[in-house]
Design brief:
This protein is about 20% helix and about 30% strand. The chain has about 450 residues and is α/β, with parallel strands linked by helices. The protein folds into two domains: about 50-80 and about 90-250, Rossmann fold; about 275-300 and about 320-450, Rossmann fold (3-Layer(aba) Sandwich). A nine-stranded mixed β-sheet has the order 1-2-3-12-11-10-6-7-16, sandwiched between helices. A five-stranded parallel β-sheet has the order 13-22-21-17-18, covered by helices on one side. Strand 2 and strand 3 form a beta hairpin. Helix 2 (about 60-80) crosses helix 4 (about 125-135) and helix 7 (about 325-335) packs across helix 8. InterPro entries: PRTase-like (IPR029057), PRTase_2 (IPR041688), PRTase_dom (IPR000836), TRSP_dom (IPR022537), UCP020967 (IPR011214).
C-alpha cells in the first residue's frame, strides 16, 4: 500500500491497482482504518471495498459499528443545519474509535424539524441504516430485503446491477412512503450511484416528493456519475443530496487479465475440531416486545418455510418511538445470555441481512466479543499482505439450501466460542453443514440462537 498526501494506491492483484484521491474527509478519518480491498467473484464488478466498520466481512467490536451509524446521523444533521466541524467533535470521534466501548448512545440522539423516513439497503446496510435511524426519535425506518414473503406485495422492487443477489423488495405499509416528507437512503458506499438512482426513480414514479438524501460512508462517484445525479434531479423534479464521511474519486489500473491463486486461504486445515452444537430458542427466554409478522417465506425452489418473521428487524417498518422497547428487550436478553458465556474470546455471527439485532446484542455481552455477519457475496480469498479476505467458508443458508452463505476472516484458533444468531429457526441439516464448514477454526463450541420457530 502506497500513500501520498490525499492520494492512496491499493494493489489488489498483480494486474490490478486502484488509486483513490480524497476530496472530502471532515473528520480526518484514516483510509487504512476504514477498509481493505479484495476481488469479487462477479463479472459485473471485479473489486470490493471491504469495510472495517460494518461488521460484515471483517470482525469488529460491535460498538464501533454502531457508532458508524451514529456518526452518519451526526454528519447528516450537521450538513442539514449547515454547522461547522469543530476540533472538539473530531477529538471525540477519534476517542470513540480508539475505545468503542466508551460510546454512550444517548449522546448521539438528534431532532429534526420534520419526520424523516430512513431506508437501509440489503444486505450490507441493514444494520448501518438501523443504527443511524435510532439517532432520530421522530423518524421511521425500514430496510429492503432479498426475502420473498408469501402474502405480501412489495410496493417497490428495484435491481442492484453489480450485486451478486440483485433484487430488492420492500414490504412495509404504504404509509411509510406515501407522503411528502424527506426520504433518506442509506448504503455503505457509492461507486456509480446507479442503484440509488434506480430506487429514486421507482419511488418518484409512484410516490413523488421534493427531497431525497443519500447517506453513505464512502462516495467514489466520478464527475460523470455526479452529473447523472443532477440530471436525475431535473428528470424527477426533486432535490437529491449526498452525505458521506469520505468523498473522492478512484482510478482503476488493470494491466492484464486477473489471476487468482485458488490454493490460498481455503477451508483446508491441519487442525480440525468437531465442535459441539447447541440450539436455543431465544423468544422462550425473553419475549420480543412486538407481535411477530405471521407471514412465511418462499425458498428458491418455491417451497414455503412456515416460520414467521420478527417485526423488530425493521424489514416490515419501525417507528422511532419503538426503539426504547427494543433496546430494553435486547439488554434483558443479553443479561440472560451472559450466563451462558465461557471464558475467552467470543465471536457473535449475524446472518446475511439479519445484522442489527445480533450486533446490538453482542455489544451488551461484555469484554472480548467481536461481531460479523454472513453474506451471499462470493469473494476471492488470498493470504497476501493488505488483502481484505484472508480466509473463507461457505455453507447453505439456514432455511434455503439453494443459497450459499459465506463467512470470511475467521482464523484458526481465534475464538473459544462462536454464537450464531438467526431470526428464524434453521433447518437442522443446514446447521450440520455449517458446522462442517467451520471445523477448521478450532472452535470447540458453536451456540446457535434463533428468535422464532414455527407456530
Amino acid at each position: 500500500m502506497i500513500s501520498s498526501g490525499q492520494q492512496q494506491t491499493f494493489h489488489i492483484a498483480k494486474s490490478l491497482a486502484i488509486k483513490v484521491k480524497i476530496e472530502h474527509n471532515p473528520y480526518q478519518l484514516s483510509l487504512d482504518d476504514c477498509f481493505k480491498m479484495a476481488l469479487r467473484n462477479n463479472k459485473k464488478r471485479a473489486f470490493l471495498f471491504v469495510s472495517k466498520w460494518l461488521g460484515k466481512h471483517i470482525p469488529i467490536e460491535p460498538k464501533k459499528s454502531l457508532f458508524i451509524g451514529a456518526l452518519l446521523g451526526y454528519e447528516y444533521k450537521r450538513q442539514k443545519q449547515n454547522e461547522k466541524v469543530s476540533a472538539r467533535i473530531i477529538d471525540l470521534i477519534h476517542s470513540i474509535f480508539n475505545k468503542p466501548r466508551e460510546l454512550d448512545e444517548s449522546e448521539w440522539v438528534f431532532q429534526t424539524d420534520d419526520p424523516v423516513t430512513f431506508i437501509g439497503f440489503a444486505e450490507t446496510a441493514t444494520a448501518l441504516g438501523y443504527s443511524m435511524f435510532r439517532c432520530f426519535p421522530n423518524s421511521r425506518f425500514f430496510h429492503t430485503t432479498r426475502e420473498e414473503v408469501v402474502g405480501r406485495d412489495s410496493f417497490i422492487t428495484f435491481e442492484e446491477e453489480h450485486s451478486h443477489a440483485t433484487s430488492h423488495r420492500c414490504y412495509v405499509d404504504e404509509s411509510y412512503i406515501n407522503h411528502q416528507e424527506e426520504i433518506v437512503l442509506i448504503d455503505d458506499e457509492l461507486t456509480t450511484g446507479k442503484t440509488v438512482r434506480n430506487i429514486i426513480r421507482s419511488i418518484q414514479k409512484h410516490f413523488p416528493r421534493k427531497r431525497y438524501t443519500v447517506v453513505t460512508i464512502l462516495d467514489w462517484r466520478s464527475p460523470e456519475d455526479r452529473e447523472l445525479f443532477k440530471e436525475l434531479e431535473q428528470e424527477c423534479n426533486c432535490e437529491v443530496r449526498v452525505v458521506s464521511l469520505i468523498r473522492g474519486t478512484m482510478t482503476l489500473n488493470q494491466t492484464g487479465p486477473l489471476q487468482f491463486d485458488q490454493s490460498e486461504g481455503g477451508e483446508k486445515s491441519l487442525s480440525i475440531m468437531n465442535p459441539e452444537i447447541t440450539l436455543t430458542h431465544l423468544s422462550a427466554i425473553c419475549s420480543p416486545p412486538f407481535e411477530m409478522i405471521r407471514n412465511f417465506s418462499l425458498s428458491s425452489n418455491m417451497e414455503t418455510y412456515q416460520v414467521p418473521f420478527l417485526k423488530e428487524t425493521g424489514r416490515f417498518g419501525l417507528q422511532g418511538i419503538e426503539i426504547p422497547q427494543i433496546e430494553y428487550w435486547i439488554k434483558n436478553l443479553a443479561q440472560q445470555l451472559k450466563k451462558e458465556r465461557g471464558s475467552g474470546r467470543l465471536l457473535c455471527l449475524g446472518s446475511e441481512e439479519f445484522m442489527y439485532l445480533p450486533m446490538l446484542l453482542a455489544s451488551e455481552l461484555g469484554e472480548d466479543v467481536l461481531y460479523q455477519s454472513t453474506t451471499r457475496s462470493p469473494i476471492h480469498v488470498q493470504q497476501t499482505p493488505d488483502y481484505g479476505i484472508l480466509r473463507g467458508s461457505h455453507f447453505p443458508a439456514p432455511i434455503d439450501e439453494e443459497i450459499s452463505h459465506y463467512v470470511y476472516n475467521i482464523l484458526e484458533n481465534q475464538y473459544n466460542e462462536i454464537w450464531v444468531f438467526y431470526e428464524r429457526m434453521p433447518k437442522l441439516e443446514n446447521v450440520d453443514k455449517m458446522r462442517e464448514a467451520l471445523m477448521y477454526t478450532g472452535v470447540k463450541k458453536i451456540n446457535i440462537f434463533y428468535f422464532l420457530k414455527g407456530e
